[in-house]
Write the structure tokens for this entry.
Amino acid sequence: MTRPETTRLVMKFGGTSMGDLERIRRAARIIAAEAAKGKQIAVVVSAMAGKTNELVAWTDGAGPAAAGLPLSDDEYDVVVASGEQVTSGLLALTLRNMGLNARSWMGWQIPILTDDAHGRARIEDVPGDVLGAAVDSGQIAVVPGFQGVTRDGRITTLGRGGSDTSAVAVAAALECPCDIYTDVDGVYTTDPRIESRARRLEKVSYEEMLEMASLGAKVLQTRSVELAMAKQVPVRVLSSFIEPDENGNLPENAGTLICDEDEIVEKRIVSGVTMSRDEARITLLGLADRTDAPADVFTRLAEANVNVDMIVQSQARTEGAVNLTFTTGRRDAQRAAEMMTAAKAELGFEELRIDADVAKISVIGVGMRSHAGVAQTMFRALADKGVKFQAISTSEIKISVLIEDAYSELAVRALHSAYGLDAL
């Protein structure tokens, strides 16, 4: 789907970009440069870096709920959402002091409508009429990210990284592109802190970015990419530390555009290598070899909202038994292990082992669909470095392997070189 030409634009600035008054002034100058080009602008902002953690700590410090009372997640949201309210007001004030027509809009004023899952709410609708009329009149609308409102008027928050989702949702409502300004100047072939020869990608498909975000890349929040793909919102990732020149222009081909695969003329076989250390491996040794045993295990995990990724089943030494291995996030691992142990008799396994000293390494690229030998290149590169893999998972456009954490950075560099990503 091709969007009609529009002069509307959503700009989003993250926590580091809002870190102090000088950085807020820098963001204001970037916004002013876009406004000078005739853009009708809505800006979505995060809280100052570290502020959300401070607010969460305050809610923790208020103490636990009294016996028999439910958690006050709705009041938690009232407190935690205030960080973005501060930065939206400060940015609007700064823009006004520069002579620009600006106003802050709270999530409930637009409104950004969500469900009532406080602390992890999902956006249901963003009516674009009122906000669209405001920006079309020449007002720069400054919107706090990360927050919304239920249909009965209670403030909600969207979970960590939710400001990215807010920005894409507002862009979808205004039917316009979304520029996300952050502390990096785009999406790279891998983490430049691990591989100095990593290259910035000019364009990445929605599907590739979704895989990268879910597999360890921290540039964009996964839900924001899902929404951008569903609503076909073009998203550009830019650095808030690179200011426009005297003519209001950014460097040529600045940032990375996340777009539909059809807009990428020359598709790379592999676009990136990611690493996630937020992994743990759980193994049930001597699980009864019943046809319904795995279903029983994963049903219990699903009911407890434990996400499982890689799964490997192998024959156990004990006759009539198997070993079942799966991976989950480190945060969920202890809870999953406790749940499995509590149900040991019903599930019928002999021993449980948990290993958090693992990492997931993934290669991602839409070109995998039409090229053979991608897996062979991966396993050969790892073998040449003496890296053993413990589990594998695949999709049409990615291959992930679980390895010892000690070899993770070595594996990333080896794969980056094997696929020629340092030569892009």
User: Anything to note?
Assistant: The first strand starts at residue 8 and ends at 13.
